[in-house]
From TrEMBL:
CDD domains: Ribosomal_L10 (cd05797). The keyword 4Fe-4S does not apply. This is Large ribosomal subunit protein uL10. Keywords: Ribonucleoprotein, Ribosomal protein, RNA-binding, rRNA-binding. Part of the ribosomal stalk of the 50S ribosomal subunit. The N-terminus interacts with L11 and the large rRNA to form the base of the stalk. The C-terminus forms an elongated spine to which L12 dimers bind in a sequential fashion forming a multimeric L10(L12)X complex. InterPro entries: Ribosomal_uL10 (IPR001790), Ribosomal_uL10-like_sf (IPR043141), Ribosomal_uL10_bac (IPR022973), Ribosomal_uL10_bac_type (IPR047865). Belongs to the universal ribosomal protein uL10 family. It comes from Spiroplasma platyhelix PALS-1. Forms part of the ribosomal stalk, playing a central role in the interaction of the ribosome with GTP-bound translation factors. One of its GO terms (molecular function) is large ribosomal subunit rRNA binding.
Length: 166
């Protein structure tokens, strides 16, 4: 194998490793973003446990070849950057969506979220969701409400019977 091919294969293997390790992978269009904005985005992503990398589309496409995410290949048109979220899949999407609101140049194209390829509209919806802990507490309070009402009703009936017996 020629040295250039060996280097390309190393990069493909590296990308494949990032895709499989990451909780979220998001493809963004960044063309026109200045260096200071890109540095700011890198910092925000790092704080969220994510990183942004720029690879050639054909290398990223090759890395997708042996995964269940080959549908993502159709989004690899034009200059792209690839964001890998390793800690919290929701926070990575939130950081990108908030940054895209401030910097109209950045466009979310598609991504991998919870082992599914999703489009940009779904990414925006996911980014608008509250954190998982908040959703769980909301669900718990919804489940507790009927039980609390039942307990209050039983207590009231018991107190009423006790009062009528006296």
């Amino acid at each position: 194998m020629r040295p250039a091919m060996v280097e390309k294969q190393k990069i493909i293997d590296q990308i494949h490793g990032q895709i499989t390790k990451a909780k979220t992978t998001i493809v963004v269009q960044f063309q026109g973003l200045d260096v200071s904005s890109l540095s700011e985005l890198r910092k925000e992503l790092r704080d969220a446990g994510a990183e942004i990398k720029i690879y050639k589309n054909n290398l990223f496409d090759r890395a997708l070849a042996n995964t269940e995410f080959t549908d993502l290949s159709k989004e690899l048109i034009g200059p792209n950057a690839f964001v890998f979220g390793f800690e919290n899949d929701l926070s990575t999407a939130k950081v990108l969506a908030n940054f895209a609101k401030k910097n109209k140049i950045l466009k979310l194209k598609a991504g991998i979220f919870e082992n599914q390829v999703i489009n940009s509209q779904k990414l925006v919806v996911i980014a608008s969701l509250p954190p998982k802990e908040t959703l769980l507490s909301m669900m718990l309070s919804c489940l507790q409400a009927p039980v609390q009402k039942l307990a209050a009703t039983i207590k009231a009936v018991a107190e009423q019977k006790e009062a009528s017996n006296n």
